[in-house]
3',5'-cyclic adenosine monophosphate phosphodiesterase CpdA (Terricaulis silvestris), 252 residues
Amino acid sequence: MSGQFILAQISDTHIRADDDGLSARQLERALAEAHEYRADVILLTGDLANDERPDEYDLLARIIEDVSRPLYLMPGNHDDRALIRNAFPRHGYLPRSGFLSFAIDDFPVRLVVIDQIVPGETHGLITHAGADWLDRTLAEAPDKPTIVALHHPPFLTHDMLFDNIGLLDADLFASVIARHRQVERVICGHHHRVAVGQVAHAPVVIAPSTSWVYGLAMYPGQKIAPKTAEQPGWMLHVRSDTGGLASHFMGL
Ligand SMILES: [Fe+2]
């Protein structure tokens, strides 16, 4: 199909330097599959590292340095902005101060990435400044198909834990998205399991983690955030002008 664009979303890699290479191997497998599927772009949607340790970021930098596709990364609640800046000096799209939010205009689909982490906290937050940035940035290209990425899901999942460590002021995020019809998809991570929701007119997809899957706890007595035997993976988003946008779970 002409004009096909493929985004490989790889999330919650939780790279550790002390897990016998498990998290690194999972990321390497996801990157190899993204290459095999001819991804145009790879985006890592946060929780890059597991414990905000420099050696974890150094390991991640080594893993991704030979990737032949354009690769972008953003922080999650397990990440540290300063350590990311230090470990990835060649990632010039990352602002040198403040939030690690950015837009990529080089492809048929525009990528708008908003950093909404709160240092030291597990939940996320859309600030008024962040919402203003998102509104201004989306207004720059109102006619270009756009995917917005953030780390925390901007909708209630009905999970007892993850809704409590979710995105604060998600209504503010939704009010911005509602003003920009070109946003065709919102993508995120954080929950380590695939789920689908909606914000304004835009479907939202939670990508899995490459490292492990969390169970769903909806009722008192159910175990909260147990690691399950479900398959980790990544998400392949494919779009063409005639075929629209589809999102596929890719198990690892
Ligand atoms: Fe995570």
Notes: The first helix runs from residue 22 to 36. The radius of gyration is 17 Å. The chain has a mean pLDDT of 97. The chain is about 20% helix and 25% strand.
